[in-house]
Amino acid sequence: MASCIAAKQIFKTIGLAVMLGATIPAYAIFAKLSTGLTALVVIGGVKPSGSASVNQSNYPASPGILNVKVSKINLPDGTVLPVTMSDCPWYGAVAYLKVVSGSASISTSLPANCQTGRLSSISILYKTSIVLTGGNPWKI
Q: Which pLDDT value is given to residue 1?
């Protein structure tokens, strides 16, 4: 009898959640991803290099964390490089790298509703040109 009452209570709770429009959160399919960044241009005779990773293991409770490291960037100190991700196009740049002594790095949260899929791509830009790109596919 007690289990029957408990079951009815569970169904009432589920019914209430459905009526209120509650949805089940969509968990990240790939919790941790990494990729090398490939240079598409040579800057002042130097070929840039880098890597990126995304940790979505706490999604949706907290947004994914993006880590980007680049080196051999032959640009003046203080140059700002936007970071874009194909799965988050509505945000434009999801991060900005600031060049210091030929390198730059950042660890930042992605926008709250931006998940990175295995076939997503990441790009580092200088002005309107893609300097480095990666992903598609990311390593799991």
A: 53
